[in-house]
Design brief:
Low-confidence stretches: none
Structural class: alpha/beta
Order of helices and strands: EHEHEEHEEEEHEHEHHHH
Strand content: 5-15%
């Protein structure tokens, strides 16, 4: 007897391997998946400018990176003892103006290189709701706790989102014409917007996404992370304590569904080997000086050496 309806996912025409170089951008769920890529030692860069939720802000940042539009004093502001930028996350904010600008522009250059070299882009959209700064009339990626009276809240139309997604693809292809794209909608519930408003937001993202997929099938895949949690799992026990974010069990499950369909089958054994090494490295012996533990360490080091011979980029923290 089945107690769930399993979603059919079409296997990617451009599977990810250990030779692939991945750039992941978007919401906090992009970070969840990025942690999985890191754990299993894939070549992955996640949100160099911090978490980004809406398609227009992601597009704007990619445009800046691709076109090498350096950050200047006009792009930053001082508030609550820190320098901020409305285009990036608060985790990058800095009390030192010069250091802040330097770090932003260093990130811009390194991200440009990563986009140029990458084989796969994973973009995770979280919401259609945006905040527009009244003074500049620009959409912001992060309000940095500036009073809400300085912003107007709006919802992006399906047409605007569709155009933004297409612009993002075109920008990346401008410097990397051979890459593949994986798009997904974050399963995180943005309940601060309201229950109905959250569904309204997700519906706009999904509608726009599928319009893009219909005529970009050769390079674009859609991974249904939102649908897996909403329809395949469909139970509050799959949420974290806040009842908004997916639990670790859910993240693990969604990762397995991703692995099955988007990662090359020839590398599944390598993933198992990496997992075995990671668990062994986390092991804490009762007697570190025992002969048995020394044999265990020798065997572990041999496994790591053989894996690094095959994939030189792999590094383990001991």
């Amino acid at each position: 007897m089945n107690f769930t309806t399993k979603i059919t996912i079409e296997k990617s025409q451009h599977p990810i391997s250990y030779q692939s170089k991945i750039v992941s951008l978007g919401s906090c769920f992009a970070e969840n998946m990025g942690e999985k890529f890191d754990y299993f030692k894939f070549q992955n860069v996640v949100n160099p400018f911090g978490i980004l939720f809406n398609p227009v802000s992601i597009e704007r940042l990619i445009a800046r990176v691709v076109n090498q539009e350096m950050f200047t004093e006009n792009d930053i502001f001082f508030y609550n003892d820190l320098w901020h930028c409305f285009e990036v996350h608060s985790e990058l904010s800095n009390p030192n103006k010069e250091a802040f600008l330097n770090s932003l522009n260093e990130l811009l250059e390194s991200t440009n290189n990563q986009i140029t070299e990458s084989t796969h882009f994973i973009l995770t959209y979280g919401t259609s709701w945006i905040y527009r700064n009244k003074a500049s009339q620009k959409i912001v990626a992060n309000c940095h706790k500036v009073p809400q009276s300085q912003f107007v809240k709006e919802i992006l139309s399906v047409a605007t989102i569709e155009k933004s997604i297409q612009n993002t693809i075109d920008l990346i292809q401008k410097i990397n014409p051979n890459c593949a794209f994986i798009f997904t909608i974050s399963p995180v519930r943005h309940i601060k917007d309201g229950f109905v408003e959250n569904q309204h937001s997700k519906a706009h993202l999904i509608s726009a996404m599928h319009k893009i997929i219909n005529y970009q099938l050769s390079i674009v895949n859609y991974f249904p992370s939102y649908e897996i949690l909403m329809d395949e799992l469909r139970d509050y026990r799959f949420y974290a304590d806040d009842m908004l974010h997916p639990s670790q069990t859910t993240i693990d499950y969604i990762w397995l569904r991703f692995l099955e369909n988007y990662i090359s089958e020839e590398h599944h054994a390598t993933i198992e080997e990496v997992s075995s090494i990671q668990k062994a490295l986390a092991h804490r012996p009762f007697n570190p000086n025992s002969e048995a533990h020394q044999k265990f360490l020798n065997s572990l080091n041999t496994k790591i050496f053989r894996l690094k011979e095959q994939f030189p980029h792999i590094r383990f923290l001991k």
